[in-house]
Amino acid sequence: MDFLILLLAIFLIVIGVPVGLSLMGAAIVGFIFTAPIQLQAIANVAVNSVNDPTLVAIPLFVLAGAVIAESGFMDSLLEVLAWILRPLRGGLILSAVTTALFFAGATGSTAGESSSLAGSFFKPMSRRGYSEPLTAATISAACAAGVLIPPSITLIIYGTVANYPVTSLWLAGVVPALMTGVLLGLVGVLRARRGLKRNPVAAESPLIKSQKLLITVIKSIAAIGLPIFVMAGVYSGVFTITETAAIAIVYVLAFGLIFNRMGFRRMYRCFNIGAERAALIFMVFISAHVFTYYLQLSGVITSTVTGVTNSGLPRPVLLILLDLVILALGSIMDGLGVLLVATPIIFPLLGVLGLNPVQLGVMLCLAIEIGVIHPPIGLNLFAVSSVTDVPVGRIAIAVLPYIAVLLFMLGLVTFAHLPIFQWG
Description:
This protein is mostly helical. It has helices at 2-14, 19-34, 42-49, 57-71, 75-84, 91-103, 110-127, 132-146, 153-162, 166-195, 200-204, 210-235, 241-258, 264-298, 300-309, 315-330, 335-346, 350-353, 357-371, 379-388, 392-398, 400-415.
């Protein structure tokens, strides 16, 4: 019965029921058939699941992400990068990867961030001769890697569930994310060079005119300064994560107001978008805790731990199976949902798997984000397709080389004892 409830949750997600409602609904059905008296505990579990001050940072960073998308915060950075990289054939690929890498973690949903970035990059790159499927695939893949870059809401949630310091997780995620970005950029440039018949960046990129050089450079420095500020503020001990998130909102709002990119009507829209996205995240968060509570009471977690411990399978096989399961789940449901359901089940297996909490967190985040871009159901592919009108099938073919890069990084993070996992 217990595993049927788990299958029910997955089935509801597959047929299109929102993740939060699927998990909550499956948990309620499970309690009705196995322990009706526990239904009265759902409210307490829901309230206690969000009774953590660290979680205040989530809606704040989500709002900051909405302002970034609406205010043109990244436009000047893209312009400067395009100008610097104009001699390089395929340079706009590097611009897209760099920008997506540093801003993809701010909303908590890479599908949403992919669609937002696609709206900014797709038409300019298409006008300059870049393949439309390649452009769409590049944005999807870069956003998947960017989930490890602070401020990563995914890592904030993992740290809350695992009761582990978020600062250690952020620090450990930076190096794999940057390595992944370099490899994605290299693969993207090589592919773009084959597809371009001329050097469109040199010929058509918006060269920075002398009269607006200073203002453009200032805007780009402001954009680069945000992730630097977040890292410096947290690791210097000057600000907590929540305080950093609040200041980040002021930072991006000030940018929009100073440069006349954020009127009150657009600001109102940003707050609406931020509130909606944050509500969806917390709905998934609360529902996943209730669902996990059911799994704990039903003995599914204990049975899983016992079964894996007694399986006799070697550690490499267990790690490969773990990655495969997360990849499969990531292709059919939102990454945060996978993270919230999988973490309580996998965390007791750290000793058997030979992992520490930091390594597991980076593994899970990377595996989940690969899941949202791999065919046939990758959510990022559909999100980008809805904005660009490029068929999902064409994007799925174009994204395969990027998936190979991400799988390589997942293997490295899974099996290599990297020093970064001991920094915390």
